[in-house]
Specification:
The complex is a heterotrimer of chains A (320), B (609) and C (283).
Chain A lengths: L1 H34 L4 H6 L5 H10 L6 H14 L12 H36 L4 H15 L2 H15 L15 H35 L2 H8 L4 H25 L1 H12 L5 H11 L2 H28 L2 H4 L2
Helix pairs in contact in A: 1-4, 1-13, 5-6, 5-8, 6-8, 7-8, 7-11, 8-10, 8-11, 10-13, 11-12, 12-13
Chain B lengths: L4 E11 L5 E12 L4 E5 L6 H7 L8 E10 L2 E2 L5 H7 L4 E4 L3 H4 L6 H5 L1 H5 L5 H14 L18 H13 L5 E5 L7 H18 L3 E5 L2 H7 L2 E6 L2 E7 H6 L4 H10 L15 E15 L5 E14 L3 E5 L6 H9 L6 E6 L2 E2 L9 H6 E4 L3 H4 L6 H13 L3 H14 L16 H13 L5 E5 L7 H18 L2 E6 L2 H7 L2 E6 L2 E7 L10 H9 L7 H4 L41 E3 L5 E3 L4 H7 L9
Chain C lengths: L23 H23 L31 H37 L1 H15 L3 H12 L3 H28 L2 H9 L3 H37 L11 H8 L11 H19 L7
Helix pairs in contact in C: 1-2, 1-9, 2-3, 2-5, 2-7, 3-5, 4-5, 5-7, 7-8, 7-9, 8-9
The chains are: A mainly alpha (320), B alpha/beta (609), C mainly alpha (283).
The structure holds adenosine-5'-triphosphate, iron/sulfur cluster and magnesium ion (MG).
């Protein structure tokens, strides 16, 4: 009864915090992109614009209204999906995003499907034999991978696999999902380069979580009861490490977002992140706003999941 | 008959990352006959657990058996393949660890863990194992044996967990059971019940056991023979009876002397002296103070006492009874909700910030853990020098001289002046900690469990130092401890706390004479005596089911009511017990009259909670 | 009198804390980091060719003596440009790190010492800021404020304030709960003395390690922005922008993009090795 209440209370608090953060982020994004750069209309029409044209554009963009009203209007638009028009090519932002979203989801999904099992497996293996050669090698290797910039891995992958070995195309003009072979040829390099860091993250965090559990007295006690091997992992190590591991997974996967920005640029991959980078380069504010909010939302969802997983790991609460 | 366990010439070493070895067990040999209980006794770090684990062919990470042989029923365990050892673990040799709370998997229910070794080794079906476990639970006097196994570890008290883990060890009827300090983490009133339960099953099942402990009195109750260990080396081994009554080795004698320090001489009665510290009607706790003037989490209720100049007041009570909280209130770290604290006639402001520098100087707190009370980034000279400068304005040469004097006062070599705490031993740290308090030239020291983190021999030396400082400097002490024999050794007056209430108060002698408050009675009778057979003589039902509750039943009830076997139904749980004066010179808080208590003395059996 | 009290048994008299040796990997880290720090200061003076000089008009030239790492897209010497670029890469990152640690550390000490609602409000705000991915934060800031070195430094600084705040706060709260701080308080010491003499000396080790990691993050962030063309602008060049400008060369197998990326990798791995193997840190 009480623990169940505690769980609900925690969930409510966490969701409330996530919602509050999203609101604060929206305010910050709006302020940064609408108020700071000065006159958006001027930026759109360029320096040679006539005063009449400027005034007309301002009115059509509601720039003559006070900032607070514009914010509420904009926020309303965000919630209902009406996120305005691109300043650069005047197409609806939702349409631009809609055309890129599937590609990005595909990339993220493929990377997740690839990273999670490999990262977990490597993490569990090295935790089972700490201080072994395998463990030492993997920990230096993963440390290095986590430490280097994404574009190092990306460019290296292009040089080796696309240029020297010619296994894959260096550029992905659009992912070819019509044939299996095409899919693999266009997706493998981006997914691989994106995966390096995430696999390393998952593996390091899984290893740490498991090692922490394996050092507990109840694991030694189990060994002294004659419990070894799979039973030890299944009944003792994994159940108690599950929360931290789930937490680690969610945190690692949130690196997908930052990674995607770089990887999509290297491979010219037509995803959301590339859209955002291009929008920033051309200072296409409505597009920047919408993409930013979308990314923050995804990031917050993962972060919230991570926290919830961490909380559920507490047996006192779970035992209810 | 051949011994079940034969250990000869055993050497174990700690091996660090680069392969350097430090010996931790040196040339230890002993054997254990079937049905015999051998006790391994020694202070922390003497290698007890390391030896115990070697009987399972197991060495913790970072340790290695480097020589000698360990045989179980003729089979050499050294070098046995992992597979064979695993067959042994939990079936032939079982282990009862010090902290049951840490040794149960927190995310599984208890029953599957208790029967696991039987199931893993294929000795019984799940149902047979559960039936046997329930029978063992009953034998070990666990409440509700049929259902306790369905709980999770955190839903069961510490004393009960310790019995559950013993049931787990005994379930497979192993040939050897290793008890590793199984009652050390428990309060003394809880320990006795667990000890009795252990003793009964050991006797009835004819268990062969190795019983590891640092407490001679505990070991005397349960062991047939005792092996004394110091710094990894055997000092003496012999029949328990003989070893306790006539120890032959000097180290054993020092252990025994430290275990039951002599009581100090009687001193002029309290009334003849002027009170230095006076505490009256003190109520305190944690959290915000509510509209009724009570804190959110009340801890202390209506506490009053005085400490005469040059005297020591001992405060005893089990863990969580509010002893440290009381010291924090007196020191000004935790402002009280009600009541006053008076020093030498002047009322002290509740909060630290309001006290004058001189008031702060006069009361010094000596913390329990010297480890955390000394700033690791300062040298001893800096630690002692700061209060000298702060309170006495000493600087330069004068300060250095004062530091050297202080070190001499606590019998530390002057060379430690330039060291940092990390390079001192536990006893040295506690002395430095004491010197730091003395540097303020205080009149009252608040000593919170100052010896409980120390080994008994080192602790006894610190106690002796405290007594000498008192007579040299005329200090007064408030001496907090959970250990009655320590309190007896150093205090002039005592106060017994239970759940934040004063239960009994008087000169030290009141603890040794009846009638007593029922809780004092339980406390005093729970301390094992340093002789064999003591456990067998006490009341059969005594302590068998006593568990700690720190919850405060209802605002008016007697706090001890849930555990009091002589309570008066309809009265004790309803009315606040009055404070009454006994003819032996003590004040107690109880509904029972002196005559009733005299008639009931010694039967104060803790009832089931 | 005093002779009646036993002194400590002789065998426990003085334990010297053993000096922890720095493992081999730690030395590797120290050497690499020291090398790049020297480059950051003196690199521009030591280059074999002026960093902006076009030597090989064809561009993407091979590795030959005199141009050990080949030439870049415009035919400039890659080695010289990497040496000169150390300053543009390391400098802003150090500035951002110092900014983040200074602001985060001060706020954290204040939060830990004052406590109460100020602590709660600060902690919540930091939690909110940290829940925006850092590269995204950087992109929005650049979109809003335009690209310039001060903007980059401030942006990276602000991004890593919450991380520094969290570490410092949790460390300070832990130390604050130690008995020796309580002892100082019982004595009546003032807040400044307690913070400076009792708390701060015990924070230094872990805080230095944290600075190292935060520096790595700042380097990665700034060079990622440069890689996207939204960081350091020509004619200045840091390693990230050098990767960007030489990316087209990859198609012809020219390694001009790999070397600056590899230089970055050695720097960040070096700092990580150094921090991980600092004496007294548990692995
Ligand atoms: N900071 C705190 N906030 C809330 N409750 C506390 C706090 N410190 C202690 N308590 C509670 O106050 C009660 C008394 O604690 P206290 O430390 O005074 O006991 P103690 O007698 O010194 O115990 P021990 O022998 O274990 O040291 C306990 O129930 C404890 O949980
Ligand atoms: S008042 Fe009643 S319950 Fe309390 S100690 Fe006395 S007899 Fe026991
Ligand atoms: Mg205490």
């Amino acid at each position: 009864m009480r623990p169940a209440l505690a769980v609900t209370g925690f969930l409510l608090k966490r969701l409330l915090f996530a919602a509050g953060t999203l609101l604060a982020v929206s305010l910050a994004v709006f302020a940064a992109t609408e108020i700071l750069p000065g006159d958006v209309a001027g930026a759109v029409l360029g320096q040679s614009a006539t005063p009449e044209a400027l005034a007309a554009l301002r009115a059509s963009m509601h720039l003559d209204l006070p900032a607070s009203v514009r914010y509420l209007h904009w926020l309303g638009g965000m919630v209902t999906g009406d996120v305005g028009h691109s300043l650069v090519n005047n197409r609806p932002v939702s349409e631009l995003i809609g055309s890129r979203l599937p590609n990005s989801l595909l990339l993220a999904g493929a990377a997740t499907a690839f990273c999670v099992p490999i990262g977990l497996l490597l993490g569990i293996c090295s935790a089972m034999r700490p201080t072994s050669v395998f463990d030492r090698v993997t920990s230096v290797a993963t440390l290095s991978i986590v430490a280097v910039p994404e574009f190092f891995i990306g460019t290296l992958a292009v040089l080796v696999f696309a240029v020297n070995l010619r296994w894959f195309p260096a550029l992905t003009l659009s992912p070819r999902i019509d044939s299996v072979e095409g899919f693999f040829r266009s997706m493998t390099l981006p997914v691989l380069s994106l995966s390096g860091i995430i696999i390393a993250q998952i593996m390091r965090m899984t290893r740490a979580a498991l090692l922490d559990v394996l050092r507990r007295p109840y694991v030694e006690m189990a060994r002294l009861k004659g419990v070894v091997g799979a039973r030890l992992v299944l009944f003792y190590a994994l159940p108690n490490a599950l929360g931290p591991i789930a937490n680690a997974l969610a945190l690692s996967l949130s690196h997908l977002l930052g990674g995607a920005i770089i990887i999509e640029t290297i491979f010219n991959f037509p995803g959301l992140a590339k859209l955002l980078v291009d929008a920033v380069s051309t200072r296409d504010m409505p597009l920047v706003q919408a993409c930013t909010m979308l990314f923050c939302l995804a990031y917050l969802i993962l972060g919230t999941l991570a926290d919830i997983a961490g909380m559920l790991a507490n047996p006192r609460l779970r035992a209810s | 008959m051949r011994p079940l366990v034969e250990v000869s010439g055993l050497h174990i070493a700690a091996v660090d990352g680069r392969g350097a070895q430090t010996p931790i067990v040196k040339d230890v040999s002993f054997d254990i006959a079937p049905g015999e209980v051998l006790a391994l006794i020694g202070q922390s770090g003497s290698g007890k657990t390391t030896i115990a684990l070697s009987l399972m062919g197991y060495a913790r990470d970072g340790t290695r058996i480097t020589g000698g042989s360990v045989k179980l029923d003729g089979t050499e365990l050294r070098g046995l393949p992992a597979r064979a050892l695993q067959q042994l673990h939990g079936r032939d040799v079982a282990y009862v660890p010090q902290s049951a709370a840490a040794s149960f998997n927190p995310s599984r229910r208890l029953m599957p863990q208790v029967i696991e070794s039987a199931v893993v080794h294929g000795l019984m079906t799940r149902r047979e194992a559960e039936a046997k476990a329930i029978a063992l639970f009953a034998e070990l006097a666990l409440p509700d044996p049929a259902n306790v196994g369905n709980r999770y570890p955190h839903q069961v008290s510490g004393g009960q967990l310790q019995r559950l883990i013993a049931a787990m060890a005994l379930l497979t009827s192993p040939r050897l059971v290793i008890f590793d300090e199984p009652t050390t983490a428990l309060d003394v009133t809880t320990q006795i019940g667990v000890l009795r339960a252990f003793k009964r099953v050991v006797r009835e099942h004819g268990v062969t056991a190795l019983y590891v402990s640092h407490d001679l009195a505990v070991v005397a109750q349960i062991a047939d023979r005792i092996l004394v260990l110091n710094q990894g080396e055997m000092q003496e081994i012999g029949e328990a009876e003989r070893l306790i009554s006539a120890p032959s080795h000097a180290y054993t004698r020092s252990l025994m002397a430290a275990a039951r320090p002599p009581e100090r001489n009687e001193r002029p009665a309290a009334e003849e002296r002027k009170p230095l510290l006076q505490v009256s009607a003190l109520t305190a706790g944690y959290g915000r103070i509510g509209t009724n003037g009570m804190p959110l989490i009340p801890v202390l209720h209506d506490i009053s006492f005085t400490v005469p100049a040059g005297h020591t007041l001992g405060i005893v009570g089990e863990s969580g009874s509010g002893k440290s909280t009381l010291a924090r209130v007196i020191a000004g770290l935790l402002p009280q909700a009600k009541g006053t604290v008076t020093l030498d006639g002047a009322t002290l402001p509740p909060s630290l910030a309001r006290r004058t520098r001189d008031q702060l100087r006069q009361i010094q707190f000596v913390h329990q853990m010297a480890d955390t009370a000394l700033n690791p980034s300062h040298t001893v000279a800096e630690i002692l020098g700061r209060p000298l400068t702060f309170f006495g304005g000493l600087r330069g040469r004068a300060r250095d001289r004062a530091v050297a004097e202080l070190l001499d006062m606590v019998r530390l070599p002057a060379a430690v002046m330039h060291q940092r705490p990390a390079s001192l031993s536990g006893g040295q740290k506690q002395r430095a900690n004491l010197a730091r308090a003395l540097a303020a030239r205080p009149r009252l020291l608040l000593c919170d469990e100052v010896t409980s983190a120390l080994d008994s021999v080192v602790g006894a030396a610190v106690l002796k130092l405290l007594a000498e400082l008192q007579s040299e400097l005329g200090l007064s002490y408030v001496f907090i401890s959970h250990d009655i024999s320590t309190v007896r050794a150093i205090c002039d007056q005592v106060m017994v706390l239970y759940a934040g209430q004063m239960m009994e108060r008087g000169v030290r002698r009141v603890l040794s004479s009846t009638p007593r408050h029922p809780y004092s009675d339980l406390l005093v009778n729970s301390v094992p005596e340093l002789r064999t057979g003591w456990l067998d003589e006490i009341e059969p039902a005594f302590g068998l089911e006593s568990e700690v509750t720190t919850t405060f039943p209802n605002a008016r009830a007697c706090a001890f009511f849930p555990r009091c076997s002589v309570h008066i139904p309809g009265r004790c749980e309803r009315d606040t017990p009055p404070i009454q004066h006994l003819s032996k010179g003590a004040d107690i808080r109880c509904h029972r009259s002196e005559n009733e208590l005299r008639a009931l003395a010694g039967t104060a059996v803790a009832a089931e909670v | 009198m005093s002779s009646t009290v036993e002194r400590e048994p002789a065998h426990v008299v003085i334990k010297r804390p053993r000096r922890m040796p720095i493992p081999l990997l730690g030395w590797v880290g120290i050497v690499v980091v020291a090398f790049w720090l020297i480059m950051a200061v003196f690199g521009p003076m030591l280059t074999p060719h002026p960093a902006g000089e076009v030597i090989d008009p064809d561009g993407f030239g091979p590795m030959v003596p005199g141009m050990w790492l080949g030439s870049d897209v415009l035919g400039r010497d890659v080695l010289s440009r990497i040496m000169a670029g150390a300053q543009t890469t390391v400098g802003p990152a150090i500035a951002a790190t110092l900014l983040a640690v200074f602001i985060g550390g001060t706020l954290a000490l204040a939060a830990a010492a004052v406590g109460g609602w100020i602590d709660t409000a600060l902690s919540r705000t930091m939690d909110a800021v940290i829940s925006v991915p850092s590269l995204l934060f950087g992109l929005v800031a650049v979109a809003a404020l335009g690209v310039s070195v001060p903007v980059l430094i401030c942006t990276a600084g602000v991004i890593y304030v919450p991380g520094a705040f969290r570490i410092w706060r949790s460390l300070a709260v832990n130390v604050n709960a130690m008995d020796y701080v309580s002892v100082a308080r019982e004595r009546g010491e003032g807040m400044p003395y307690i913070m400076r003499r009792e708390i701060l000396p015990n924070l230094l080790g872990p805080v230095l390690a944290d600075c190292g990691l935060r520096f790595v993050f700042a380097v990665l962030l700034l060079s990622s922005l440069s890689f996207l063309g939204l960081g350091i602008q020509p004619p200045d060049a840091d390693w990230g922008s050098m990767v960007r400008e030489n990316l087209p060369g990859l198609i012809y197998g020219a390694p001009a993009a790999i070397f600056p990326a590899a230089a970055l990798a050695t720097l960040t791995i070096g700092v990580n090795l150094l921090v991980d193997n600092l004496p007294g840190r548990e692995r």
